[in-house]
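Much of our argument rests on the idea that a fold can be written as discrete symbols. In the encoding step, the backbone of a single protein was reduced to a row of integers, each denoting a local shape. This step matters because it turns folding into a mapping between discrete strings. For completeness, the protein is quoted in full, as a sequence line and a line of structure tokens:
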Amino acid sequence: MREVLVKEKHEISIGRRKKKTKEPKKSIFEIYKSQKTMKDYLFYLKDFLSYIYDGESPLEGDEIIELMSGIEKTDIEDYLSHLIHERNMKNTSLNKVISSLKSLYKELEKNGYDNPFKYIGLFKTSRNLDNILKVSFDDIKDILKNYKVTGEKEYRNTIILYTLFYTGMRSQELLSLQFKHILKRNGEYFLKLEKTKSGREQYKPLHNFLINKINEYKNYLVNMYNCNEEFLEEQFVFNSNFEKNRPLSYRALYNIIQNLGAVINKNISPHNIRHAIATELSLNGADLIEIRDFLGHSDTKVTEIYINAKSIIEKKVLEKIPTNDM
């Protein structure tokens, strides 16, 4: 029988301790694995608080939590009105701000604070099909056909384009990719994605065509830098400096895709390549769930735009319009 110690009247103590000690909770600024996500969220938060509160000095640390806890719903309404009427912000941009602040305040709420953003909704938006259809599979083939490869950097750039298209990866996922993240199981290759938008690890199957391209590029690097494959494991697949193993920045990646697009006179971004593969999958018969899982979307509502794009490209409805009697 467990020993029970009587300390005072009506007060007892069991002579045991809990097996697991509680670990200190992470602050709301430490919960996001993606540095880019945290940087964006803090930018929106500081802009919001700077609008509501007076003061010229930069917002820092504990002061931010204190200021966040003093926000009321009317403050939010004033700020959103400011963004709409004075900054002329579009609904898509407004939703980025609101979603960021809702996420931060949700974490604050877990620590016992009020959440004035709890019932603040998002604005209705329609995804821009022009942007979705900006670059096609044929466009990508034209880029690769006409882009001049004169050295290591240009060769790297073509592999970046192949990888973005054949995986549908987001920019941050691509930039953080190391050779050790390319896994082989039972003759099949997979990518282990660590820096995903959700913050959870994900695995993505690799197309045989792409793995051949990556292996060719890997052999090229081995010969170029006189290193072995074991050394390459810790290297970023796409770096700005091989010797220092320094990954590309988002700005550098964006500029690379811009330069590739200029080959066919198109102004494109890394995300346009993601749109291109999703649209191509839809055109080739992939269903909504397959495309959602391939892209790593959390909700099929986000994926539905590619089904709409398919109907526009195929123009099947036009075949049903009569013309014989005109």
The domain at 130-316 is CATH 1.10.443.10 (hpI Integrase; Chain A). The CA atoms of residues 193 and 202 lie 5 Å apart.
